[in-house]
Design goal:
- The structure holds 2 protein chains of 2 kinds.
- By secondary structure, chain A is α/β, with parallel strands linked by helices.
- Chain A has 8 helices and 8 strands, in the order βαβαβαβαββααβαβα.
- Chain A has one domain: Rossmann fold (3-Layer(aba) Sandwich), CATH 3.40.50.
- The radius of gyration of chain A is 18 Å and the shape is globular.
- In chain B, α2 links the parallel β1 and β2.
- In chain B, α1 crosses α2.
- The chains are: A alpha/beta, B alpha+beta.
Chain lengths: 222, 114
């Protein structure tokens, strides 16, 4: 039987991406641009939430949005009506963004004069959580119709987020959604995440969310 | 669902390693796949042959997969255990709040060469 020599490698497959993500973060810090990675399942309300967020913050900061989808420019067209600068990234069928794709998007975008860039990630509760995009903070949106058990079914997504918005609270009477249970389920996986019950439709809860975001952008730029 | 880019990444990374270290032929690549990672070992394996077919130094490389179990640490009592599901309770105190301390990663453990 052939004898082979063993060479220890011990290299994470995420190592390259993690290094790239750190570089992106360092460069954006030097430049004073805060990158927020916004994730959720399709239809949870990322774009609507972004529109209201931009409307509330644009008076005090320059905002850009990078839209990531598998196909179409639907979201980019919607966001561009808000007055924020926007670019549409197509992922070529990939189910998530990684640091390299984020860098390519940022290079194309020219972000030097932007205070806040939001990366609207691909609608997916699984894969985007795996890959560090180089963002300063991660946020995700859980919507009431999806159910209060999602933090148990998709634990990684809730573990990696700094903020969780519980959207569509204006519909809570119509769905079987227990807010206390949802918050408790989130806390089991992530005791530190900020939780914001909101309605992107009515604006309820948006003051707390935009205050948090604004404070984080300010801290980043100091 | 994204096993292919990860497999390609592994193969490319080892191709570069082989080139830099003057290894003409890698015989075996051993990969550790964490139980809680997003990669399914079966699908990872099915991407291997097409991926090494595109390499220089891994054309004949076999793949060995070690499936690494998860380890969690209870935030209440500090006990370490293997959680069966994300809503599992600590076997010592029953508390459901725990942090995963290993089992999420996918890494190239070692390679075998002549």
């Amino acid at each position: 039987m052939e004898k082979y020599k063993v060479i220890e490698i011990k290299e994470s497959v995420f190592e390259n991406n993690d290094k790239q993500a750190e570089k992106v973060r360092e460069e954006l810090k030097k430049q004073g641009t805060f990158l927020l990675n916004l994730m959720s399942s399709p239809g949870a309300g990322k774009t609507t939430t972004l529109m209201r967020t931009i409307d509330m913050l644009k008076g005090g900061m320059h905002i850009g949005v990078m839209e990531a989808d598998i196909d179409s420019a639907v979201d980019a067209e919607t966001i561009s009506s808000s007055g924020a600068r926007v670019i549409q990234l197509h992922t070529g069928g990939m189910c998530h963004l990684d640091a390299e794709m984020t860098r390519q998007g940022l290079d194309e975008f020219e972000t030097q004069d932007l205070d806040l860039v939001v990366l609207e990630n691909v609608g997916n509760l699984v894969c985007p959580a795996e890959f560090d995009t180089g963002a300063a903070k991660n946020a995700m949106i859980l919507s009431v119709p999806e159910g209060d058990d999602k933090p148990l079914k998709y634990p990684l997504m809730f573990t990696v987020c700094d903020a969780v918005l519980i959207n569509k609270i204006d519909t809570i009477s119509v769905f079987d959604f227990d807010m206390k249970k949802a918050v408790s389920n989130i806390r089991l996986r992530n005791p530190k995440a900020e939780i914001f019950p909101v309605s992107a439709n009515t604006g309820e809860g948006f003051d707390a969310w935009t205050d948090w975001l604004s404070k984080n952008v300010g801290d980043w730029r100091r | 669902m994204h096993e292919m880019p990860i497999v390609l990444n592994v193969v490319r990374s080892m191709d570069v390693y082989a080139q830099k270290n003057h290894i003409p032929d890698i015989k075996v690549v051993v990969v550790d796949i964490g139980e809680a990672s997003s990669v399914v070992p079966f699908f990872f394996r099915s991407c291997w042959d097409p991926a090494v077919g595109q390499s220089y130094h891994l054309q004949n490389a076999a793949l060995e997969i070690n499936e690494i179990p998860c380890k969690a640490k209870c935030r209440k009592c500090g006990a370490e255990f293997r959680p069966g599901r994300s809503d599992a309770g600590c076997p010592e105190c029953g508390y459901k709040g725990w942090n995963l301390i290993s089992g999420r990663d996918i890494s190239i453990k070692e390679i075998l060469v002549e």
